[in-house]
Amino acid sequence: MNTEKNMNIEKTISEHAVSDILTPMLESQDRIVTEDVAPLFNKATGLDTPPASGTVTTTIEESRSVISAIIRKAWTAPLTMLFGASVIGYITAAYTYLRNRLQGSETYGIPDRRSEISASSPLAANLVLLNDRKIGGVPEVADGISLVHLLMSSYVSNITKLTDDNKGWVLTKGFTSLPNYTELTEIEMGCVSITELLFHSVAPKLEKLRFPELVTVWHSRADGNYPIGIFDTLPYLTEFYLPKLESAGSGSYGSFLSNAPLLTSLSMPEFKEWLGTWSGGVVYNMAALEVLDLPKLEKVTGGGGGRTCFAIDCPVLWKVVVGNFTAFNTASTYILTGCPKIRHLESKNIVDASVNLSSWTPDSETLAHQDFLQNFRDYIALRLTDNGSGKTLTLSQAVFSAVIEGSSPICDEIKGIIEDKGWKVQDTNNNIFPTT
Q1: pLDDT at 352 over 90
Q2: Predicted local confidence at residue 28, as pLDDT
Q3: How many angstroms separate the CA atoms of 214 and 221, rounded?
Q4: Which positions ≥6 away from 400 have C-beta within 8 Å?
Q5: Would you say 297 and 327 are in contact if contact means Cβ atoms under 8 Å apart?
Q6: What letter does residue 384 receive in the DSSP assignment?
Q7: What is the DSSP letter of 121?
Q8: What is the secondary structure of 199-252 as a DSSP string?
Q9: Domain range annotation of the chain
Q10: Is the overall model pTM greater than 0.85, yes or no?
């Protein structure tokens, strides 16, 4: 300690002592570890006391008794810069954490590395031993397990949660190419793009899928299993989080999401296009799906055999929101096949081109629902452009009959809106309104 400082033990500030004592004691080649401080050091670290290295060179110039008193005060007095912790408590916590992390596991064949802790090395050097210990994102995994061990042994069946905090990477390996994660219930990934079938009859207990950074998905492999989804056969899925997804597509057989019978709602607020070919559409065979909310969707491409779909075989789906009905203009007429309960079909934006909605065939119960005609007026008729000359809205015979041939006041209001906008409406039997 600088001789200009007051050496009265009652007036010495702990922080001052730390700067002159703790650093050389623990981090320099010449440590001040005498018989006075050895018990404290040993207690804090659980290690054998390192011997003094010979002549000690410091700025401390005082009697042995004062030095000993200052050392003990510095180690045991609460330090404001350490938020009230004593130096010995701080070091004790660090070495306890270190020993716990390095103890290994006989069960999983992970070696005990506590013997590598060196009493003659600085604390910082000992903490470096933790660098390769933990695989991130797998909270249940044993500390020190290797990636190869994790993926290539039966240990994988114990995992219930995977969380990824890396962002911007491209996922090129689907779970179909990895061991079966039989206990996995939750996954979060930071990938920005997916280029492979991710799930297909694996992870049978998966409940939550989160992709907070995902922007694009494209699957090009022809597997011959029409219309298996990029995300497929997820019997317990109840949450599917895709806040940034803009584009998805399949270059062969396949849909985007299929066979997830417990999922009740799918919302993709940034989703703009489904690039299908021979595909099952965005959703296929979703037994419990009630709401499909895609407020920016502007494009759904068609494909071979006229089988490209948007939503197919979703028996309780009642609400569908898209950015614009013109999204369906490049696809076939199989847009809403097997979805008999849709009573709320909405275009968020003005429809400025002819649209074919003939595959929308609600059942009689849906057509009779008290909200059906009002929803048609608010989210279809009123969304048609005022410049309707030469533009046609094609409906199924069932919807045409309920809306155009109906005699209720709201039917008359809808027909008035269509006439005022200059649109033509027809059904699959070539019935046309207005007739002139």
Answers
A1: yes
A2: 41
A3: 20
A4: 425, 426, 427, 431, 433
A5: yes
A6: B
A7: S
A8: EES--TT--EEE-TT--EEEE----S-TT-EEEE--TT--EEE-TT--EEEESS
A9: 1-132, 157-433
A10: no
